[in-house]
Amino acid sequence: MATVGIGPQFFRKSLNDYSNWLWALPREAMQNSMDAPHSKNIHVWIEPKDGNTLFSWGNDGAPMEREELEGKLLTLGESGKEFKGTVGGFGAAKLILLFAHLEYEIITGNWYVRGSGGNYTIEERPYYAGTHTKVLVQGNHFADLLGNIRGFMFQAQWSGSVKINGEEWTQNLRKGSRRRDFDWATIYTNKSIHNRLVVRTNGIPMFYRHINCDGRCVVVELKAGGADVLQSNRDSLKSNYQQQLDAFIDEITVNKVSAFRDDAPVYTLYVGDKIHSTPIAEETLEHIISAAYATIPEHTDDEPIGNVIVDTEVVYAQAPRSTFSQPMKRSKINYEFIIKNDTGMMIPTHYLPSEFSEYSDKLVKIWAKVLLTMHDLFNKQGEFSIGFVFDEMAAAEFEFTPKYGDVYYINPVAIKKQKGTNSRSMAKRYKFNAAGRWAIVADALHEFVHGAIGLEGHDELYSTMLTELTGVVLREKQRFNCCFV
Which of 234, 256, 278 is the last residue in one of the domains? Predict the structure, then answer.
């Protein structure tokens, strides 16, 4: 039986499938290196060669076996990733990585491959601990490839080490403040890059573009690897997801007040001891949040009381003493309590520890008890604070800062916007019926995975861990009954 022949021009023309293949090539190379199991160190080398460009990259991750090398990497339409938490899975990247160029070489484990287009040879060599790939790109593209891989690094977030032409490069574009949750992505904003939209998955930038967003950077972190959201060339989103993202961009362009506030959050600290998560008894839970009033210790410069204006992400500022000149108020909280106001609105007094309403008092008690029970259930020890966060979107939030340490916030209100006006109002978020109580448990578990477990993003690893822990909580739900009395 005859087979369909594939000429060299077929592979060369695959470069036209990308809006900018000189960005896509280093992106695919870096993504493969970052995705390699146990990869911690990546090296990249780019240099002109006889009117063409030599581009090589490698990592110290687990090398490929021959079956994976020939059956997946060197076979059209196949992929070794299969959407399991990695960016890939389409089987298309190999065209731009290897086959579209004048020649290529791969060294991985015991195998050495040399080829051009669809033709290659493979032979056994001494063992190489990792994978090293080299391609000869037609034409002099040294400046473009070097600039694009540096741009990739500037927009990435990865914990390993990367060297480009022998120079160490950092890759730590932090997400910033969470602004919107879709079922397929979480959107953040920061001030790292002016008017830039960056679409990433697992911290790896897929594509970016200029947007008019009041000088901010919008980071879109795709969930579950992004395979069902991205086009196969990973240069754009599929149309229905792109429409949702465009609608959000339009919203923040029109309504900068809610999306891009220039004011940093306002933190109000009510001093006290940290909550220590150790094996606990029910009477300990009752002691943590007492109904009795506690006298706030006299403050010093190291123990501020009052409003502290801080940076959106990291608390550095120390408010002047005059900020704390108001008379000290008594609190119903025996332990450290923090209010984070990210709305720019005035907080009603019945949400302040000194004037707690019955609703606020009950919500705080449940929140503290649920978190302590969760730490006990999963045998996590340490210390943390609790607090209220006032935010237009978040139901709860975990935050670590050098000043306050670990803080688990719950949002007691839902912000409602009035039709036809820009006015906003606060309404109680939770009811204390069965559904409302378990909504609090679900919000606590969401933040517990961020805080106590230490998973920052919302990738597949986070989703898997959240699912596993949810199963445990449901099996052990009787342990949470004491939280609601």
Answer: 256
Domain containing residue 122: 8-169
Whole-angstrom Cα distance, residue 279 to residue 62?
Answer: 40
The total of structural domains in the chain comes to 3
Kindly state whether residue 447 falls inside one of the protein's structural domains.
yes
In the chain, % of residues over pLDDT 70: 80
Please report the pLDDT score of residue 310 as a whole number.
Answer: 32
pLDDT in tens, 253-310: 765 545 555 456 889 998 888 888 765 444 444 544 443 333 333 333 333 333 333 3
Within a domain: 109: yes
Over residues 204-217, the mean pLDDT reads 88
pLDDT digits (tens, 9 = 90+) for 102-130: 999 999 999 999 999 888 999 999 999 99
Looking at per-residue pLDDT, the higher value among 248 and 49 belongs to 49
Are 281 and 359 in the same domain?
yes
Q: Are residues 182 and 327 in the same domain?
A: no
**Token code pair at residue 243:** 């429409």
For the chain, give the secondary structure using H, E and C.
CCCCCCCHHHHHHHHHHCCCHHHHHHHHHHHHHHHCCCCCEEEEEEEEECCEEEEEEEECCCCCCHHHHHHHHCCCCCCCCCCCCCCCCCCCHHHHHHHCCCEEEEEEEEEEEEEECCEEEEEEEEEEEEEEEEEEECCCCHHHHHHHHHHHHHCCECCCEEEECCEEECCECCCCEEEEECCCEEEEEECCCCCEEEEEECCEEEEEEECCCCCCEEEEEECHHHCCCECCCCCCECHHHHHHHHHHHHHHHHCHHHHCCCCCCEEEEECCECEEECCCCHHHHHHHCCCCCECCCCCCCCCCCEEEECCCCCCCCCCCHHHHCCCCCCECCCECEEEEECCCCCCCHHHCHHHCCHHHHHHHHHHHHHHHHHHHHCCCCEEEEEEEEECCCCCEEEEEECCCEEEEEECCEEEEECCCCCCEEEEECCCCCHHHHHHHHHHHHHHHHHHCCCCCCCCHHHHHHHHHHHHHHHHCHHHHHHHHC
Q: How far is it, in rounded angstroms, from Cα 110 to Cα 293?
A: 70
**Paired residues of 426 in beta bridges:** 415
